Amino acid sequence: MSVVRDLRVLLTLRDFRRLLTVRLLSQCADGVYQVALATYVVFSPEKETSAAAIASAMAVLLLPYSLVGPFAGVLLDRWPRRQVFLYGNLLRALLAAGTAVLMVAAVPDWLFYASALSVTAVNRFVLAGLSAALPRVVDEERLVIANSLSPTAGTLAATLGGGLAFGMRLVADDSDAAVVLLGAALYLCSALASLRISRALLGPDPDRVQPRLGAALGSTARGLMGGLRHLAERRPAARALAAVTLMRFCYGALFVTVLMLSRYAWSTTESAGLAVLGLAVATSGAGFFAAAVLSPWAVGRLGPFGWMACCTAAAAVLTPALGLTFARTPFLVAAFVLGMVTQGAKIATDTVVQTSVDDAYRGRVFSLYDVLFNVAFVGAAAVAAAMLPPDGRSTAIVVLVTLIYAAVTIGLARIVRADRSGRTDPANSEG
After folding, report:
1. Alpha carbons 54 and 62: distance in angstroms, whole number
2. In whole angstroms, what is the distance from residue 45 CA to residue 42 CA?
3. Percent helix, strand, coil in the chain (nearest 5)?
4. Which residues neighbour 274 within 8 Å (Cβ) at sequence distance 6 or greater?
5. CA distances from 357 to 10, 145, 278 (A)
6. CA angle 266–269–270, rounded 5-degree value
7. What sign does the CA torsion over 405, 158, 75, 355 have?
8. Which of 82, 186, 265, 304 would bridge with 29, disulfide CB 3.0–4.6 Å?
9. Kind and range of the H or E element at 153?
């Protein structure tokens, strides 16, 4: 198979392997840490969780990145990206250890959220930097397959981290603090792994950025506007980001629905609900893996927008067919399908952005990409909080998500038709 052959070629590239190792360790730690937070906030026996409480937690943890994100982009276009991975993961290891202490001390919720916010804030720099650095370790010919393997492998690593967290919780007698310490250890390993990469390799090129940090911080607003203008001039990238943001909204709304169903409708105890949620996450992770295998071939045959249109069309058909039952097994099938189509669309979007956006702007654009993801996810949680009943069974949520998928499919189909008629080239056009 050509996909397997391309994967083997990529894995022979030393610098790609090293960057991938940093990603895998970092995102595995993310999975451990996020599951620890979820179990502490959602599945603690002493907490009576509601959709509104979940939405509030997501808002506290994610919305501030709407402010952090632009700063991350401007700095990523100036700081050595290798150093971001090194110091960012060292800082997260330290902060995660602090979160574990706060869990044991039973401090007020606001102090716990502040600690968790600090850990995940640094994540904005690391994830955006990993995406911006990828074109520096592979050539453009293999960028699609690299975008399939690297982010998807990271997502699978996060899923594995979630599994490790579940297992650690059983071994450690339901201790969320012990799980967080495991995440801290993995962040430290990711920091050490980054030392194997040359400091200058990952960019940005020193002759294309402002050399002084003070000047970089002073130009944050101008840099952000410059990134927005650059993105506006790259219409394929802007269109891809709009489509994948709407898909993220749909995924977020269904994620909160599954949380509530796992907590109340599909189980009678907190531990049983946590097990069901873990199974749903694992099933979605299998969909991510399927997307990694299928997407390079699909993008090659259909183009990035054609593949995205297929993904959203499949979601528009299967979401109501499976989701309106509100039964566990059909929802698990839906988790696999939505994992595959969401990750498949993200792979295509990453490729469009990386090939359409100049290297000097990639940090800023990927940070904006990250901000859109956070706002869409929190917005979905807020909508779900307003529409979901206590047990999570909401026909209105499923219908709303279906209509959004259908609308995105129509928009993407128009782009594909325009491409076929010769008016635009979605993958390569810059205007």
Report:
1. 12
2. 9
3. 85, 0, 15
4. 39, 43, 166, 262
5. 23, 18, 37
6. 95
7. negative
8. 186
9. helix 143-171
**Residue whose token pair is 């050490």:** 192
Which amino acid belongs to residue 218? G
Q: Which domains does the chain have, with CATH numbers?
A: 10-420 (1.20.1250.20)
Are 287 and 335 in contact by the 8 Å Cβ rule? The answer is yes
Degrees, nearest 5: CA angle 147-162-158: 15
CA dist., res. 402 & res. 399, Å (int):
5
Q: Which residue has the tokens 């203008």?
A: 229
Rg of the chain over CA atoms, in angstroms? Answer: 21
pLDDT digits (tens, 9 = 90+) for 334-368: 999 999 999 899 989 988 888 888 877 877 787 77
Q: Which of 246, 284, 264 is nearest to 394 (CA)?
A: 264
The residue whose two tokens read 């083997």 is 8
SS3 at position 92: helix
Q: Which whole-number Å values give the CA distances from 365 to 56, 99, 163, 186, 242, in the listed order?
A: 27, 31, 32, 28, 13
pLDDT cut 90: percent of the chain above it: 33
**The pair of three-digit structure tokens given for residue 212, joined into one six-digit string:** 């002084």
Other C-beta atoms lying within 10 Å of the C-beta of residue 301: 9
